[in-house]
Amino acid sequence: MKYRYNSVINTIIFCFLFTYLSFAQKPGDLDKTFGKEGKVSVGIGGYFDVAQEVALQSDGKIVVAGYGRESSSSFKGLSIARYLQDGTLDYDFGSLGLIQKQTTTMEGELNSIAIQKDDKILAVGYSISSTTNNEDITLVRFNKNGQLDKSFGNNGLVLTEISDQKEIGESVAIQPDGKIVVVGTTQHNPGPDIVLARYDEYGQLDYYFGNAGTVITNITPGPDIGKSLVIQRDGKIIVAGFSYSADNLFMTLLRYDSNGILDPTFGKSGIVITSFSSRVGKLDLVLQSDEKIILVGSSEIDNAHHFTVIRFNNNGVIDQSFGSNGSTRTKIGNYSEAHGVAMDSNGNIIVAGTAELGNETIVVARYNPMGVLDTIFGADGLAKVHFYEKSIDRAHSVIIDSNGNIIAAGETTSDYTTFGLIRLIGK
Fold first, then answer.
1. Mean pLDDT of each 10-residue bin along the chain, 427 residues long
2. 14 three-class SS
3. Number of other CB atoms surrounding residue 75 within 10 Å
4. Alpha-carbon distance 329 to 251, whole Å?
5. Cis (ω within 30 of 0) for the bond into 190?
6. Do the Cβ atoms of 354 and 363 come closer than 8 Å?
7. Distance between CA atoms of 75 and 19, rounded to whole angstroms?
8. Is-contact 328 371, C-beta < 8 A?
9. Which pTM does this prediction carry?
10. Were 237 and a residue from 185, 256, 296, 313 both cysteine, which residue would form a disulfide, CB within 3.0 to 4.6 Å?
11. CA 284, CA 266: separation in Å to the nearest integer?
């Protein structure tokens, strides 16, 4: 009887340990409680859908914005979706969790989103004017339930035309006083220049900012392109972009004061042109608690582009204590592109993008606060995710949820291209 009793106990212990070990996950593993084994793939337009940015509302719901097509011949529509914390679509948002093509006459993209304190959603990108056929900066505000906020702009939409050619909104941020700042690019003679615009809480341009609400910055005779921004605690605005010089595009930082004037205490007259050459793509920024600046993008190594993380002191000088003389460059596969950055509660830097590893693959890297790959995360600091065996997968944005887990959003292409989200264990 004693032998039989011990046998039963041992069997129970074995089953418990087997179950525990089967579900035990380490940092960098896909979170199997999210979607299908840590992955979510949802078509919005039904043919071609790309998620450009992801954000969290106060209740942990996940909002994703981008663009989509219904068929190969249809135009791109502004798209947004909301998911519950387990990765299922939130059917209380918009139309069954999805919104696509805000009006039948609007073609364009959403590139960035920000969540207000009241959980209203701001999204920025561009749309093509039905009258001029030019691209205009397009700012949209949704109520918490996904319906257009009719109190904002013109029934929820604000179109900003600066030149008679085209403008694109790339990134949006909200000041503590509720004012909204957008950065992007304007086709301003003789070529593209960085543009900042600031709006009040109702979507009207703030005429106390720059020149009647907008600031155009021409750095070089060639293209200057605005891509991302963050707002410091003192209200100063940091912008990341590209500047063209000597037949190359270089990562560039700018800082403006709260009135839209370049800050002379930052870099050279408010501008830092780095020595990191790149190509037009995504750049992202995050501020540390000490307001040192983390910039991520892609720079050239051995004739290919790879993950690049640079840290700057608050005055715009590269922080030589970080990585190797201020930067860390990680070669992943034949080429890789870093698109999004977030910082966890331990000061680790999480970078998401794509790498050519046979097919394009989502890659999330975690660096410690000194810019060194964190080897306890994934495989030697890298998590590589394919949705399907032969799919093409890209991540464009990354955030940290309230549990410290990592959510990356982008696209996955198999038969069709759809919004793709993954969640990785962070702790």
1. 47 45 78 97 84 97 91 80 95 79 70 97 90 88 93 94 89 96 88 95 96 95 94 97 88 96 97 89 95 95 88 98 97 94 97 95 98 97 94 97 97 91 96
2. helix
3. 16
4. 14
5. yes
6. yes
7. 49
8. yes
9. 0.92
10. 256
11. 19
How many residues in the chain?
427
Joined together, the tokens standing for residue 25 give: 């996950």
- 3 state SS of 4: helix
CA neighbor of 78 nearest in space, from 115, 41, 53: 53
Signed CA dihedral, 257, 261, 265, 268: sign only:
positive
Tokens of 338: 């870093």
Amino acid at 153: G
Look up residue 7 and give its two tokens.
Answer: 């046998």
* 135 contacts 126 by C-beta, under 8 angstroms: yes
Q: What separation in angstroms does the CA of 236 have from each of 77, 212, 285, 324, 417?
A: 33, 18, 14, 28, 38
Q: Residue 101's pLDDT is what?
A: 56
The torsion angles phi and psi of 368, rounded to 5 degrees, stand at -75, 175
